[in-house]
Amino acid sequence: MHWIKQQLKDFYFRLTNRQLWIFLILLGLVFTAACFRFHLSTYMLIAGLVFFAIAAMIPPIGRSVYLLLMALTSPIGWCVSMISLAFVFYVIVSPMRLFKKKQVVGWVKSTETIDPSQQYE
Amino acid sequence: MSVILGISAYFHDSSAALLVDGTLVAAASEERFSRIKYDASLPLKSVAFCLSKANLSIDEVDEVVFFEKPFTKFERILDTSVRFAPYGFVPFQKAIRSWLKSKFWVADTIRKQLHFKGNLSFSQHHLSHAALAAYTGPYDSAAIVIMDGVGERACTTIGVYENGKVQLLQEQRFPHSIGLLYSAFTYFCGFKVNGGEYKLMGLAPYGTPRFTQLIRDHVVKQKDDGSIELNLEYFRFHKDVEMTSKKMESLFGVSKRKPEDELLEIYKDIAASIQEVTQQLVLQLIHSAHQLTGKKHLLIGGGVALNCVINQAIISQTPFESYWLHSASGDSGCALGAALWREGKPISSDQRLLKAIDFLGPSYSDKEIEESILQKQLVFSSLSDEELIETSSDLLKNGKVLGWFQGAMEVGPRALGNRSILAHPGFPDMQKQLNLKIKKREGFRPFAPIVTAESAADYFDLQEGVDYSRMTTVAKAKQVESMPSCVHVDGTSRIQVLAKTDQTLLHQLLVRFGEKAGIPVLINTSFNERGEPMVCSPNEAIACFFNTEMDALVIGNKLILKSENAHIQHQNNVYALD
Prior knowledge:
The complex is a heterodimer.
Chain A: H1 2-12, H2 17-37, H3 42-57, H4 59-72, H5 75-93, E1 107-109
Chain B: E1 3-8, E2 15-20, E3 23-29, H1 31-34, H2 44-53, E4 63-66, H3 70-83, H4 89-101, H5 106-114, E5 119-122, H6 125-136, E6 141-147, E7 154-162, E8 165-173, H7 178-188, H8 197-203, H9 212-218, E9 220-222, E10 228-230, H10 246-252, H11 265-293, E11 297-301, H12 308-317, E12 322-324, H13 334-343, H14 349-353, H15 366-375, E13 381-382, H16 385-397, E14 402-405, E15 419-423, H17 430-438, E16 449-452, H18 456-459, E17 472-474, H19 477-480, E18 492-494, E19 496-498, H20 504-517, E20 521-526, H21 538-547, E21 552-555, E22 558-561
Parallel strand pairs in B: 1-4, 4-5, 6-11, 11-12, 14-21, 16-19
Antiparallel strand pairs in B: 1-2, 2-3, 6-7, 7-8, 9-10, 13-22, 14-15, 15-20, 16-20, 17-18, 21-22
Helix pairs in contact in B: 3-4, 6-13, 7-11, 9-11, 11-12, 16-20
């Protein structure tokens, strides 16, 4: 237990405040790019940027985000985090309609069967 | 030689069809062989029948065509699940089981189960419907309108047929579907979805359409371009296994009817209202298709096209001069459509004129029929055509109910005179008797008449040049009394007009019956009882005959009378209620 605590503590203080600040700014930029790539809504983008700004400005929060991220990206943490993310996405994000994808009402152009050997259009 | 095998499966009404050098050789639904109504399994028995009829082996088949794109359909299911999360998970977890079990592996399953090594291709659901209508229809140029519950994603499609080419132009996607709207009300009125829709259509004339405006105001909206928008608050089919929500019950002030419960007046009014709403939606859609394509003729397909009441209005209330649909325009015809799509050209005019496209199922030789009868140790008579007509017309005139089994089985859901139950429409209680004692089904269900082409105009209001076999028409007021059991409460009938060249023996029977009874019209209903698929073989015809209260059975040239076979006990086959 002591060893785990020591490891976490080492990890917690591994980065200087400046390094942590740069790390969180980079994380915020990655998040912004992901928002545009995956068509996340503006609300989602703003909420995320506010979160990263707060984390960068307040070191204890920033360090906790860093620790959580490192823990989640370990092999076991990765599995848990992916399942948790899927759950959060399905139960919270989807019903909140945070994705821009809108329901199609009205006519759309018919898709043509280009390659008959394929099971999809 | 070019051999194309069409297959539809894993939805409902699985079927197979075989096209040899552009000629439709065989087609049949799997339910006719498996004896499971609306059977959705891979149609192995139908495929075996098609190949044996053409005397071919699977190695001689050049290409197998599946009727839709499975992965596109799965994409729609996945998309729906996410869009309506977390509720969408309920139908998804039910769907994923059948997908993992069979639907993901369609290509492998077809190859393995059929031992097929050739080309395998995939049509699109609505393209299969469109190809069936276009390539079996009588036009060189026409607009196409396909309407059903849902295919891969499309629920309604408009297209054109020109110079042998089918082109789909635009589609309306799930969940905004005219078919699903009708199915949801079918469910609300206590009937089964994917099968009970024709009951709702039959129930509609008993009610008053007093909810039409209510439905148009709250449940469904339509734009001028014919597209519709369902108010999903009233439905649950996109997020549950149920079709309608509690809000629908609040709207009408009545709870959903449970199957087999009493049919209260309000359900009849709801049926009448949704029938009227659907008709309005379809007619507006067809108007839009006319504006978009500018064609004179119309080809329709999909399950909604089987609504023969709406079809009646297409001629009188839209700018199209004429329209055509195949008798198997629902999903049971998709295998045919898929094969025709790959062939890419219309069937020969000879095949169309002979109406062979409606009778592509199994037929049985006199020897096979006799063997079946002898195996059951039945008393029967072998008669000449003249004797058969004379005896059958006498029986019918005297109010007896006759099973009629001749030639090749019908390919679609309608009995067109080869697997039919025939009766005298002049007896006022014949409808009730047929419904309750023979078909063992709801008493309100109407029966369709069959009439000779020469006399059709004397009994029904007909327009010249219109094929009435897929629509209802009004019975002439002065004739309603002479055929009360085949005229529905609204004064209409879904007639089948039989020309002399179509089915000679049945035509002769109608003429002789007309001479004796004074009316060349017979009730013609499918040869089966409730929950049972239409009979296919002589054995099934005999079983159905002894399981019901039919009086006589004609199979080929053999006549079997119930009175001479009193020693045969009722079979008491039990079928799941449909």
